[in-house]
Automatic annotation (TrEMBL):
Gene3D superfamilies for the chain: P-loop containing nucleotide triphosphate hydrolases
Residue stretches in coiled coil: 453-509
SUPFAM superfamilies tied to this protein: P-loop containing nucleoside triphosphate hydrolases
Entry superkingdom: Bacteria
Source organism: Paraprevotella clara YIT 11840
InterPro entries xref list: AAA+_ATPase, MoxR, P-loop_NTPase, RavA-like_AAA_lid, RavA_ATPases
Name used for this protein in its record: ATPase family protein
Keywords, alphabetical: Coiled coil
Domain AAA+ ATPase: 34-177
Length: 522
């Protein structure tokens, strides 16, 4: 298990005199261990280069390389001059790389976007594969981290998208805001270099062993749910933003893969063998393209956390059951045909697809119009019923469905009509479809409704208990997380608070429904 205290101690030593830059420093170390690079956006004189110099001291025998880019920078200045003797005596084109980027552990490249195309192209493989092609020789680099900086974002139309995408972690760096910390900074005598005890420095051998440990960190199911929910929310937001002419989010598949690896690295360095909700908050420093997206990103991140948490503890299923019970089960006395309720909340559609069970929620059937078609979609429920379910179409719930694939559904006396074709619903045994529901049937259904409402109350109690346990675990983990700020911790707290509120609302609603069913029976 990772010694979290050692990482905390290392960050403390490296952070001496770096006022209000501790978070950026910690993210830089995280990126280094994860094998990623970091981009710092901010004006000159805000300690961006000092952060890179400090990171060199985190590694045993660490070497650094710094360079200020300009339009006139040449590859010789970054990767080393061409060896004249090799070219003259051996007819080989190669660079003398000693003391330049290919031999450094930590690299700082200032004004990164001013680099010319030849430098940019070489940097792509350096950043992604940690490889440099020196003539015909492929050099495996000792590189741990590239810190790039600029006071501007990459300009559009200059083919910088690929290079921009290589920087997984992105931070905005500003001047010191706190007055007392500013006074300490201007009066401080701490040098840019700090003395780091060798016992807490990181070695190349350790990093190789850690890489195996990081790959072994477990990814729980809720992480995958969170990713898919967040991607769906991004797609929905981008459609709206494009219509308004606002900036869009773009997250490549490669970037998602790297983010998951970053979450694993975060969990590992925090001494855990499984990714936590708190680790997912690091998404906030990985997907923005402009600082103006911060507020939107925070909202989308919160919504995705809420939805993923609720899905994990089973809130949507219980919410659907409650809606079906409220709108379908409690209104059964108004029916003129006794359709059979199957699997607690559904009617079964007969002969729609031979050999397959097709269901529709009772409440969604009751809401159908006899003459106004309503769009539905057919979804497969592998987890609960094992059947196909005809669900009312909602764009937010089914963003990938094309309009041509929608099914137009209306209600009929004996069932429903789908795209002009009629299908009957499975009826109770002996029912001829013309008689009203017998009073004994109504009473039976009301008893069933009361019992189901009580069952939902009980299940919500279990969900509430699971959430409470999860909250305790996450609260302890997030409080001492090495790579988060207080504002990010608040995002998680607010998300879990919303989940708790939603569960409480469902508990109240189900209790009221249970009492109402009991009154009708009496």
């Amino acid at each position: 298990m990772m010694d979290k205290k050692r990482i905390a101690q290392l960050l403390e030593v490296l952070g001496k005199g770096l006022f209000e830059k501790e978070h950026v420093l910690s993210l830089s170390l995280l990126a280094a261990v994860a094998g990623e690079s970091i981009f710092l956006l901010g004006p000159p004189g805000t300690a961006k280069s000092m952060i890179a110099r400090r990171l060199k001291s985190a590694f045993r025998n660490g070497r650094s390389f710094e360079y200020l880019m300009s339009r006139f920078s040449t590859p010789d200045e970054i990767f080393g001059p061409v060896s004249v003797s090799a070219l003259k005596d051996e007819d080989r084109y190669m660079r003398m790389t000693e003391g330049y980027l290919p031999t450094a552990d930590v690299v700082f490249l200032d004004e990164i976007w001013k680099a010319g195309p030849s430098i940019q192209n070489a940097l792509l493989t350096v950043l992604n594969e940690k490889v440099y092609l020196n003539g015909k020789e492929e050099m495996r680099l000792p590189l741990k981290l590239v810190v790039a900086a600029s006071n501007e974002l990459p300009a559009e139309g200059e083919n910088l998208d690929a290079l921009w995408d290589r920087f997984l972690v992105r931070c905005v760096v500003g001047g010191i805001a706190d007055k007392e910390l500013f006074n300490l900074m201007i009066s401080s005598t701490v040098q840019s270099e700090v003395e780091v005890p060798d016992v807490i420095r990181l070695s190349a051998d350790e990093l190789r062993v850690w890489a195996e440990g990081i790959d072994a960190v477990e990814i729980p199911v809720f992480v995958f749910s969170f990713v898919h929910i967040f991607r769906r929310l991004l797609t929905t937001y981008n459609v709206s933003a494009e219509e308004k002419g606002e900036s869009l989010f773009y997250v490549s598949d490669r970037r998602w893969k790297k983010m998951v690896h970053l979450w694993r690295t975060s969990a590992f360095l925090n001494g855990c063998s499984v990714v936590h909700l708190a680790d997912l908050l690091l998404l906030q420093v990985c997907v923005w393209d402009t600082p103006a997206q911060e507020i939107v990103l925070e909202r989308l991140l919160t919504d995705a956390l809420v939805a993923a948490c609720e899905e994990h503890v089973g809130v949507p299923l219980l919410s659907d059951r409650l809606a079906a019970l409220k709108e379908g089960g409690m209104g059964v006395s108004e029916m003129h045909v006794a359709f059979k309720v199957v699997k607690a909340f559904f009617y079964q559609i007969q002969s729609m697809y031979p050999g397959r069970t097709v269901l529709i929620y009772t409440n969604e059937y009751e809401a159908l119009s006899p003459d106004q078609p309503i769009p539905f979609v057919l979804v497969t429920d592998r987890r609960k019923t094992g059947a196909q379910i005809l669900r009312k179409y909602e764009k937010s719930r089914h963003p990938d469905v094309f309009p041509k694939d929608l099914l137009q559904v209306v209600r009929t006396m004996t069932g429903l009509q789908v795209n002009g074709r009629k299908y009957e619903l499975l009826r109770e045994a002996g029912e001829d479809g013309e008689n009203a529901v017998p009073q004994t049937e109504v009473s039976s259904r009301m008893t069933f409704s009361s019992a189901m409402a009580e069952r939902i109350v009980a299940e919500l109690g279990e969900v509430s208990a699971r959430l409470e346990q999860w909250q305790r675990e996450e609260a302890e983990y997030v409080q001492t997380h090495l790579f988060l700020q207080d504002r990010q911790r608040d995002i998680l707290k607010n998300a879990l608070r919303r989940v708790r509120s939603d569960i409480t609302s469902l508990e109240i609603e189900s209790q009221e429904l249970s009492h109402a069913a009991g009154r009708k029976l009496s």
